[in-house]
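Researcher: Before we compare anything, I want clean individual predictions. No alignment, no superposition, just each chain on its own. First chain goes here; please echo the sequence and then give the structure tokens.
Model: Echoing the first chain and its structure:
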Amino acid sequence: MNAIPVMQLNRQPKPKRYRALYVTRQEGNFIKYKLSQAGWTVTAVADVTGVGHGDVSNVLAGRRHSRAVEARIAAILGYQDWNQMVLAIRSIMAA
């Protein structure tokens, strides 16, 4: 009779880690354009999220990640999360 080790019975799956997609400079410029159409500037996004202007610029240039900035930009543009927005922008730009 094969016994299953106790460690395997108590093992829980690891939660999936959220990984935000990086954007290219062209995608970042498109996001800035969409923000300006919605009446937002990079400085306004920085003020609302409580980070510096440079941090928002770095996220839009694809050099850094910031969950707060990414979530705020996605919400402003009407998307559920950053990855959904980036994938939608990529499909728009590919057409």
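Researcher: Okay. Second chain, same rules.
Model: Second chain and its structure:
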Amino acid sequence: MKYFFETYGCQMNIAESAAIEQLLISRGWEKSPDAETADLVIINTCAVRATAENRIFGRLGWYAGLKAVRACVNGAKAKSLEKAVDFVKDGAKPLTLVVTGCMAERLLKTFKTEYPFIDYVVGTYAKQHFVEIAEAMENHTVTPQLRDDELYRFAPLSYEPGSFSAFVPIMHGCNKFCTFCIVPYVRGRELSRPVEEIIHEIDVLSSYRVREITLLGQTVDAYKMTDKDGKEVDFADLLERIAIHLKEINSSIEWVRFMSSHPNDMTEKAIKVIAKYPVLCHHIHLAVQHGSTPLLKKMNRRYTIEYYEELVSKIRHHIPDVSLTTDLMMGFPGETEEDVEATLGLMNRVRYENAFMYYYNPREGTPAAKYPNQIPLKVKKERLQRVIDLQLKITSEEMEKRVGGTVKVLVEAVSRDDKSELLGKTEQDERVAFKADESLIGGFCYVKIISLNGNTFKGQLIEDSVKHLEEKDL
């Protein structure tokens, strides 16, 4: 039996797809190189923005044709399905199509009715039922009606086979109810994962020689859990426990990241822990969304720009070499030119190294979708472009400051632009390209930064660093 994934959206979706993949692999399934030759296709969807949903609707149309071909119904003349036609001629089985993720949760009651060629719609709280789907396919039986459980269950392992970087979900859901965001409605309330489960997954990842992990949660720094000894553990405590544990077991994991952080939950206690333990990366994604306090209030963000900038000052006081990134949304209902200028001013003061920038996209079911004074699309795009132009300038200026320095790099892949170069990233999540042998992929080395090309550093490998790090690893 062969499976194929299409995953859209956030890192949590990527982690959950990896968890489902682990389940299938444990049952002897194999990964297919494409959808045309798979027995099972799983589309893990995103509902955060309408553009993501529209893309998925388009893909569903393609899959309707693919399923028809695989069922030998229409003979399919479409060029994009020629491989599927040949596959059918060779005696392929019909295709089973599953839609899961946030979009599936949002449209749970109507998806199957409106798109009857979908075999299963699996909501956010029902992913454990993939066992039943797999069993039904293996035994050629009909799967019983899937139910959506009331409690989200964390998968024991979210790991893509062969990867040296991995996601570790520690929280699920969100209690913030920002007026523009659909996440609380499709992911539910905040739920923290038991400390012992997190540590166990980290141990498994260490046994696979994983080099870097990212702790995940919709509001990751809101983590709060009682451990097996009855002690309350907050996000700072969890970070410290992980850092100490990795050192105790001499783990292959040398970098620990986390995302996404909410400004209201990022404490000075957590900041000090990050500064104390070298394994905790000096990179924080601190989503601000906008530079106008009045608009933040309308968004239900529950902090002021003054509070946010004070938090940034605390971070930079304790972690001077930190790289800060953020989210910026333009065109929220009622946004004025004064609000736009406030955002540009914030960017100039904080000087983010990078930002995820987008314009407001109304989501059905959220309060802001019904707010008056919706901003015309043309105006939203113009305001967003001003923000993008400024951020590109700031990014270049901030990264130029690192030229001439030496950085530790996790080597990730061969460069697509120059096959003689490798690509890696720094602790601050910056991209570095340098000439070196492919054997370094999946390991660490030190690189001297020579220049900046766009948003990627050009560097020179420090040869002795490879031997030094290998000896340390041993």
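Researcher: What stands out in the second chain?
Model: The mean pLDDT is 90. Additionally, The chain has 15 helices and 20 strands.
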